[in-house]
Specification:
Number of helices: 6
Structural class: mainly alpha
Largest sheet: 2 strands, antiparallel
Strand order of the largest sheet: 1-2
Low-confidence stretches: 1-6
Strand content: under 5%
Number of domains: 2
Bound molecules: zinc ion
Shape: elongated
């Protein structure tokens, strides 16, 4: 099935692109925070508690949980710092939100509020959002869409999934027509 192979590869490249948005400093910060939390749990805390603390198993559970919590926050701040840039959103503001609402709460807020990715029109370099089908300045066909209902279509679709229109009848640019066969 060549079609499913294509979409599988597309999915994988989307995931790789997303992972590339986590900057190296934030991976470094994540490793450092995890080690720092382990240091606090296994070196600092035993030296300061004189009464027998929690059972060792529970202590290890808390050490790893808090370590993962720190890693999650470091990666969330790193991801937001890069992703906000390509969406024209305020970078310092959203990094601060992730810092003040840790544990993924700030990151969830960010994902609820985030704007479409901004790129430029290949024909006239006008800034365009990723959900635009046509350039607002030069009418360049930015992404495949149905000629009747103008909702998005995948390059491999023969018929519109929303209205059933035969996409081969549309006046699509050559680069899109290739995929309609
Ligand atoms: Zn344009
Ligand atoms: Zn349609």
């Amino acid at each position: 099935m060549p079609l499913s192979n294509t979409s599988h590869e597309e999915n994988r490249s989307i995931l790789t692109d997303e992972l590339r948005l986590i900057p190296q400093w934030s991976i470094g910060l994540a490793i450092f925070s995890f080690v720092a939390v382990q240091y606090i749990f296994w070196v600092v805390m035993p030296a300061h508690t004189h009464h027998p603390g929690a059972p060792r198993g529970l202590h290890a559970f808390f050490a790893i949980s808090w370590g993962e919590y720190a890693v999650l926050n470091a990666l969330a701040i790193g991801y937001v710092s890069k992703d906000a840039l390509r969406r024209g959103m305020s970078r310092p503001f959203w990094m601060l939100v992730c810092l003040l609402a840790p544990g993924g709460v700030g990151a969830v807020l960010y994902f609820l509020m985030r704007q479409p990715i901004i790129s430029t029109c290949p024909a006239c370099a006008t800034p365009v959002h990723s959900d635009y089908h046509f350039c607002p300045q030069c009418n360049f066909h930015l992404s495949a869409s149905c000629g009747i209902c103008y909702r998005g279509a995948r390059l491999t679709d023969l018929y519109c999934v929303h209205c059933g229109h035969d996409l081969a009848q549309d006046n699509t640019p050559e680069r899109l027509r290739v995929f309609h066969g």
